[in-house]
Amino acid sequence: MAEVSTGKVSTGKVSAGKISTGFEYYQGLNARRKALTLVMFLLTLLLAATDLLIGSSGLRALDVWGILLEGPKGQSPATYIIWELRLPMTLTCVFVGGSLSLAGLQIQNITNNILASPYTLGITAGASFGAAIAVTFGFTMLGRLWLGTVTLALVLALSISLIIYQLGRLRGLSPGTLILSGIIMNFFFQALQQYLQYRASPEIAQIIAGWTFGNLARSTWVCVFTNLTLLALGVIILSGWAWKLTALTIGEERALSLGVNVSRLRLQVFLLSAFMVAGAVGFIGTVAFVGLVAPHCAKLIMGDDQRYLQPSATLLGAMLLLAASIVAKLLSSGSMLPVGIITSIVGVPFLFALLMKTGR
Predict the structure, then answer these.
(1) CB-based contacts of 333: which residues, under 8 Å, 6+ apart?
(2) How far apart are CA 355 and CA 25, in angstroms?
(3) Confidence category of residue 318, pLDDT binned at 50, 70, 90
(4) d(Cα 232, Cα 237) in Å, to the nearest integer?
(5) What is the mean pLDDT of residues 203-224?
(6) Rounded to two decimals, what is the model's pTM?
(7) Is CATH 1.20.120.1200 what the domain over 95-333 is classified as, yes or no?
């Protein structure tokens, strides 16, 4: 009896030790995640400051800092350059990059497809086509062209999201179905956009063509505040769904057993992602692969816990677009190279590596 009792006590001590060790490991893991998130935030600030300082006007860092402290009321040309040109472009990089990355992350989560993103699924192409319609026909809302452009971009983005969602439901959201649906959408809306360019005047055709590159030169304060609002809503809503999305990444059956309404969650996330994508494309045009590259990098760093994955993906998307903006400025003198070209150069080999890795 004594030996049996001793054995039980010993086994209990070992179990308690394992639980204690596992809890300490979990605490340490979360502490590292928080530290990495803070580092990403500081790097985002550093890249934003660097992007703000770079330009063709030759302003020194102290001059830029003084103008920022002075505010937008100054009458000098330097004040106009900083407050009306550089600062809107820098903030647009932050909010558009964060929106595209966060939308791409959630699309990957709900489809269980590492190749899914707003660009590869054709959502971006549809939003760009909607913007092209508004530009071609002068569609306005409340007398403003930019509002009409964003509205049609949103309508097309939502429509495509719903079509892809329904196709996925019919075929069980298989990776092959989704990617092929995205390819079809991309080709279809690119063809429609090219038709609009062919029929339009040279001036309008040039504007539509510029929409396919992702040009930060179109950034305005309206663009900044619109994308800030959409990103803030996306962050707040998705953070409330963090545990549901984490459960979904483990598996649909596991999520259903935990009481998650998977169908409704997928539809809600698709629509929310479409809003964020439309806000980005409706102002600056197509920016490829940010919604694919940044989420994957975030997963490699943070794992699948949505509490840490969502903010890190948002920050990495902002960092990626800020870095593209800096490179675009350095590669061109006097005029800014469209950032969509830079992100495509980075994204194409990344997508090819993912295709080779999946083996499908």
Answers:
(1) 56
(2) 34
(3) very high
(4) 9
(5) 83
(6) 0.86
(7) no
